[in-house]
Amino acid sequence: MNKLTQRIDKERLLLGIAAPLLAVVAALVVTTLVILATGKNPGDAFSDMVTYGSASDSQVYILNKATTYYLAGVAVALGFRMNLFNIGVDGQYRLAAFIAAVLGGALTVPGWIAIPLIMLCAMATGALWAAIAGLLKVTRGVSEVISTIMLNSIATAIIAYLLQPGKLGQLDQAGTLVSTKPLPTSSYFFSIDTGPAGVLWGFIVVAVIVGVGYWFVLGRTRFGFDLRTVGQSETAAAASGVGVKKMVATSMIISGAVAGLIGMPTLLNDSHRFSNDFPAGIGFTGIAIALLGRNHPIGIALGALLWGFLERTTNHLEFQGYDKEILGVIQGVIVLCVVIAYEVVRRYGLKRQQQRVGAELAAQAAAPTEKQQEVAR
Amino acid sequence: MKILYGMQQPDEGTITVNGEQVTFHNPADAIARGIGMVHQHFMLADNLTVLENVVLGAEKLYGIGSKARAKIKEISDAYGLNVRPDVLLEELGVADRQRVEILKVLYRGAKTLILDEPTAVLVPQEVDALFDNLRELKAEGLTVIFISHKLGEVLSVADEITVIRRGTTVGTADPRTTTTKQLAELMVGSELPTPETEESTVTDVPLLRVEGLRLAQTDLDGVERIVLADISFTIHKGEVLGIAGVEGNGQSELVEAIMGIRDPDAGVITLDGTDISHAPTRRRREAGVGYIPEDRHRHGLLLEAPLWENRILGHVTERPNSRGGLLDTKAARADTERIVEAYDVRTPGIEVTAASLSGGNQQKLIVGREMSHDPKLLIAAHPTRGVDVGAQAAIWDHIREARRKGLAVLLISADLDELIGLSDTLRVMYRGRLVADADPATITPEELGSAMTGAATGHLEHAEDDHR
Lengths: 377, 468
Description:
Shape of chain B: globular
Distance between the termini of chain B: 44 Å
Order of helices and strands of chain A: HHHHHHEEEEHHHHHHHH
Organism (chain A): Streptomyces carpinensis
Number of domains of chain A: 2
Main location (chain A): membrane
Helix content of chain A: over 70%
Structural class of chain B: alpha/beta
Oligomer: heterodimer
Shape of chain A: globular
CATH architecture of the largest domain in chain A: Orthogonal Bundle
CATH topology of the largest domain in chain B: Rossmann fold
Strand content of chain A: under 5%
Number of helices of chain B: 18
Mean pLDDT of chain B: 81
Membrane topology (chain A): Multi-pass membrane protein
CATH topology of the largest domain in chain A: ABC transporter involved in vitamin B12 uptake, BtuC
CATH superfamily of the largest domain in chain B: P-loop containing nucleotide triphosphate hydrolases
Transmembrane segments (chain A): 12-38, 58-80, 92-109, 115-136, 145-163, 198-218, 248-268, 326-345
CATH class of the largest domain in chain B: Alpha Beta
CATH class of the largest domain in chain A: Mainly Alpha
Strand content of chain B: 15-25%
Helix content of chain B: 25-40%
Distance between the termini of chain A: 31 Å
Mean pLDDT of chain A: 84
Low-confidence stretches of chain B: 463-468
InterPro entries (chain A): ABC_transp_permease
Largest sheet of chain B: 7 strands, mixed
Strand order of the largest sheet of chain A: 1-2
């Protein structure tokens, strides 16, 4: 009996890896075809990506990018585990980063007080912004997809309104860039200088902690179990005593709080201010990464790293005379393939397990029956 | 059955129709070969008329107009189905809907009919009518495959019986020479299980008291519908209260109100002296309410989660599943092993998903889970529905065992034999009201059936009923 359990587990693991692998391979094939169609050599392009992507300065760049992407992936994955599609991660993190940057610029306290305050402020802002969608869903039945998309636009408008000279923004010396008041040097997050390779953002530590926390809360706590239950079957959750509405609102708020952290690596480690060129659209990247990582903490990390790698290396391809749109093609194909591959693999796995269980039980049942028949003869 | 209808592909073996070997890739193939299926859960659209329901998906055959209507009339008259094509489906009762389903299959030219547990939702009088229809079909040269676990019905309607147990044919029988008992032994592989309780264990300590329970629901058109009206009853320790009724007369809502999934508009629910009328579901469960839901896939299981996670479901705040706010996965796994062992859940392990178990084994797992937390009250809604005979007997045993231990049991079932056999007290529910009560020791399924259709109310007396 134990043997079979192990076998099924091993197979499940294999199936788990098969899907993203399948997706990446399919993406490679499609990309090859696309590059071929543009009359260039795909082999050269791939080898350039690998050599350039494994250079030490690229590694640091990828890790820094992945830190941001990881947080975005976790924020989206939290919603996914609940069957909630939090498209609003984008608006949540931008608004959170903006408010936190304003607060950070205004604070004159020592760094060890300021940094946690800035992070808390960002999480609170993200949570509040997500809470609007959560409350609308549980009280009025508004689809979170619709409300969060609209909240994204509203966040954009609010930031554009407040980020003006004379309001919360200021013009830099060159007169081209509007930004919030820069953070004092004491409020910079620690970073690791790796010499010529560049500077590794210290915020990667926070990202790891968030990942561990995500795994622990979902897999090991009562709250996490309730959350997963609602995600798997709302009716069973209600019958088992989970307050479904409360859970929906709560998880939306947590997703928003994590989303609030997305802008923090950039703000605390890099830009130190919120300007109108602050990275946008990372919320949507998070959706792709959460899908790719199967909502699994390690899977999301791999997805985030892959995304960083692709971005870094395709940027470089542009200098080699390839079209920069290759990046979009690869990313798009990967996401598409991932969604299809997961569903195919999931159905296959479920069917296979049913067959196995059936076969096992039939074998168990057959053993005594045969004996009986022999006796009967 | 699913294979016969092309919904699943066989690993081995052949199907021969009219001497010709065939393979079905989907239900359309099966229909093309003249095989039609009447599902246990009807596949009909409420907001369409009978005519529209019948032609839906088969528009090419006779169009959607007068030609189709004529054809429906013709089939209906030929087999005595009494179907009126222009009535809205929502106005029809269960038995009429079933006839529409049968007609739908015949309309598509079926020569072989598969009926999956067709009598589960019918009262005895309706069952007789259905059997008359089936005999009519037979007389016209059609083949009927009648799947049921009700032995009496099989014996009365079938010309040939094949018994399947755990996925294998265990034998065939001739209904003219076989008794119910022999058939049952063939099905179970051992002696006959009957849902009969032993001596009464009813005490005079009330455990669950429901008073004046009322629940109204506003439907999509804004019309308020009374789902539960002035429901009052008391269940004592060691008592099984059975509620009979055709499905959809408020039984599900009653259970949900007692479980706290629906909030009643009026009325008081008292569990062991504590008012729980508006308490959240989790508190009720912690207070000792065990729940075997009527639809285990929707309310009782996480189908894609492993068995041990399903063991936690509903009892996540209780030991051994958790300590403080943390899950104790090791203890939960160990206890799942225990349940699998003690309740004879046939599974290769506790890491397989709940979806891969058969209905009977899923149900045994649920019963085991609910009984593992020392409940005071057990709510069992259709506990043996869709469950093989072996598991059925086991579940009956567990309910009897619960009663012996002094639990109060609320039993809701469409299986009248089960209700009469297990209950100490019987109530009949009709249109959201408890309209009649009966003594399970003397009542017959037919008498109960007439109350279920609203034909009889008050206290049902066996002998007197016959004379009236």
